TrEMBL record:
InterPro entries: GHMP_kinase_C_sf, Mev_decarb, MVD-like_N, Mvd1_C, Ribosomal_Su5_D2-typ_SF, Ribsml_uS5_D2-typ_fold_subgr. Residues 12-171 form the Diphosphomevalonate decarboxylase-like N-terminal domain. It comes from the Bacteria. GO terms for molecular function: ATP binding; carboxy-lyase activity. Gene3D superfamilies: 3.30.230.10, GHMP kinase, C-terminal domain. Keywords: ATP-binding, Lipid biosynthesis, Lipid metabolism, Lyase, Nucleotide-binding. GO terms for biological process: isoprenoid biosynthetic process. The lineage of its organism: Bacteria, Pseudomonadati, Bacteroidota, Flavobacteriia, Flavobacteriales. The keyword ATP-binding applies. This is Diphosphomevalonate decarboxylase. It comes from Flavobacterium petrolei. Residues 198-326 form the Mvd1 C-terminal domain.
Amino acid sequence: HSVEKGNFQWSAPSNIALVKYWGKKDNQIPANPSVSFTLNNCKTITKLAFTKKENDGTFSFDLLFEGQPKEDFKPKIQKFLERIAIYLPFLKDYHFTIDTENTFPHSSGIASSASGMAALAMNLMSLEKVLNPEMTEEYFYQKASLLARLGSGSACRSVKGQVVVWGNHANISGSSNLFGVEFPNVIHTNFKNFQDTILLVDKGEKQVSSTVGHDLMHNHPFAERRFAQAHENLDHLISIFENGNLEEFIKIVESEALTLHAMMMTSMPYFILMKPNTLEIINAIWKFRNETKIPVCFTLDAGANVHVLYPENVAETVLQFIKNELVGYCQNGQYICDEIGNGAVLI
Ligand code: PMV
């Protein structure tokens, strides 16, 4: 099959890891398995227009961000195309216009790499499917996740499913280092419509990129123990997703967040991505939880922002608490209400 020109548009969400991916081997192979909730509102929407060109051995593309040319993102995309070219042999036969926008505020400190790379991977797979229409839906999503992984590791968890595992794990059938898979078992109703309110503590550019952070896990004094711990924590979560035990869920999730940052603090060179207000928020959440017994907890990405996680049935009370006591710690009082979602969508 062949096609001269056309376009697709996909949205892909961000995701928040419960068991964190931190440390990798060559080719974006994770040092340990991770699991995340797919988000619903924090998304990248990307339109891919393609026109057939002569294959002169180079990639040709224009990049627009919110409709405006965006030169500084181009090297990242160029590198991505080089990495995935062996999987998509048609890439040099087309000129692409990639037009992308995020639903969350620009430079809010929310990483758009997961949603952005996933949205682009979905579009490229749509073209691949036009050229090879006989592929199954399972193959389509698996390969999309594999491509997204090569753009940004955690992006492979933004393709399909509400709870997504990436990385080989003995007790999760179908799990793979190469792509994310939907958590295969039935999940307890306590996690239905689970809420994630993202408190924007610091919107500045990260001082240390996650690429550098992953690299610092090589020769890290605690690396092997940490990687083993991630396997254990994922094992725990398998039972927690089945029995709905929120007290145990909180222990694993908060410990994972603090361990991620502990790895940063104990690498060489060492660094700290939390800000004073990150700690103020964590302490306020602990105090509130102690006093009310409401099962609300926090997790962190590689940054200062805090994700506040809680079940839907306590949403009203927790949101009131966030407005009364936590918003003051956010930059310009900004926060984003999100919840568990289903993955990428063709628009
Ligand atoms: O996908 P990357 O290379 O940006 O790494 C992201 C790592 C964390 O967000 C800190 C953890 C995770 O599993 O998402």
